[in-house]
Structure formats: structure tokens, C-alpha cells
Amino acid sequence: MAIKKNGFIPSSAPEELKKVLTAVASEWGDMIEDMEEFHVIPLKGAMTNEVFQINWPTKHGDLHQKVLVRVYGEGVEVFFDRDDEIRTFECMSKHGQGPRLLGRFADGRIEEFIHARTLSAADLRDPEISALVAAKLREFHNLHMPGPKDVLLWERLRTWLSQAKKLCSPEDAKEFGLDILGEEISMLEKELTQGSQDIGFCHNDLQYGNIMMDEETRAITLIDYEYASYNPVAYDLANHFCEMAANYHSETPHILDYSIYPDLEERQRFISAYLTSSD
Q1: What is the pLDDT, as a whole number, of residue 8?
Q2: CATH class (in words) of the domain with range 7-112
Q3: 169 pLDDT more than 90
Q4: Which terms in the Gene Ontology molecular function aspect does this entry carry (predicted)?
Q5: How confident is the model over 80-104, as pLDDT tens digits?
Q6: What φ, ψ does residue 190 adopt, rounded to 5°?
Q7: CATH dotted code for 117-151+196-276
Q8: DSSP 217
Q9: Inter-CA distances, 190 with 70, 170, 185, 187, 193, Å
Q10: What is the reported pTM?
């Protein structure tokens, strides 16, 4: 499905999307008769989906409503279960976390537009902002979500490895060492599951583009729960540090630059803020 960028929703857009958008507007008392009343602004920084801000004039005329339309990327089903993600999204809304789900269509959904700015890579290195993120992550980990509390990390790694082997040519599989990754995963699981572990509801994708901050209240909101699941909380902390080595505004967002990985002092400061944020 295509949405016209930097303009209006074209007449060729799926009827389902038009109906859902019109229904959302109607619930807010705004009657939309012409699709050109919906103005589309593409938003950058998302890897898995295409994301758009949709504006339209309110019944008062001098104001505008805003929603966020998320169009699902093709082939992402190999990475996570979309139905699980929707259930998580709805449950998070009930917990008062993140945006509200306003509507769904076959290829995506409509979300509440959060009036906050997305963090930048530089923001994550700011000690004050980093401490706010740490406290929010601790709150996230303490959420009680329905369903089993099983760790999904190792099963997910093996699933992704299996998919990679199916998709790669023999040459690529050899270059990326796919033949030995299975053994490495088993070794890591054995080494890292010894002793007691704190298991919590983890975000698993805490890069700067998934963190928003209200400039006035300094309130932090974590968004995008495609990969969220129960895991060791230490894994989520470590993954957040790895995300600091990524540049999601480059042509190679999947290649990490470990020369900018947070040093020991930064990591200790974040973990200290995490541990002291609650009890």
C-alpha cells in the first residue's frame, strides 16, 4: 500500500484506510468529505515500517487534528508475530504507556499522535536524558503483561538463524558464519542462564528512534513494541548500549560502529540511574 508523501492521500489508496481514517475523524466530531482534507507528512527513522503523520482540519476550522499512520513493512513476519505485537500495544495502552490504538486496517494501524520529540543519538549521551530513559526502562520492565513469562531470547535467535539460512546463498552463509552461529547461541545460552536472573517485560529494541520526550514535562515515552517480550532485563540493558553504536539515519543502520559504544563510566551511570529509580 502506498501513501502519497508530502501531500494528500491519493484516491488510489485502499478504501479500508480511508474508511478507518474517516471513522477516527468522525469520532472526534470532524466530518471529512474529501480525501484531500487529509494532509500527509512522512516521518523518518523507522526501519521496520513506514510511518506518516496525518493532519486534518477540525470542525472549528482554525485547528488541526493529528494521528500517526503506521504501514507495516513487507516480510517482517519472520522477525515477530504481528498479532502478538497488537496485543502488546493494546495492553500497553491500558497501562497508560505509549500511544493509544485508534484504528486498524489490513496493512497497518492508526495511533494517537504523541506531542513529543523523538530522541537523537546525541540525546542518549546526555547524562540527564539518559537517566530519564533508565528510569522509564525500569518502569517498563516492571509491567505485568498477560500470558506466559517465558524468556524468548534464545528461541528467537534460533528462529532468525533458521530464516537466515533459508534466505542466504551458500556463499553468504559462509561469509556470515551461519554454520557456526548455532553453536555460539547454545554456548551463550549455557553461560548466561546460570544462576539467578531478573526476568522482566523487555522492549528489546530501545534505539533512540523509539524513545520520545515531552520537552515541557521531560516525560519519556517508549514506543514500537514489535520485539517486546519477557527476557532477562540485563539483556535489554546491554541491547540499549549496543543501539548507541547504530546510526538509523544512514544507508547502513544495521552496521554498528563500536568505536562509539558507551564507555564503562556511561554504562555504570545508566545502570546506577536504573537501579536507584525505584526502591
Answers
A1: 57
A2: alpha beta
A3: yes
A4: kinase activity
A5: 666 777 778 788 877 778 888 888 8
A6: -65, -45
A7: 3.90.1200.10
A8: T
A9: 38, 28, 9, 5, 6
A10: 0.80
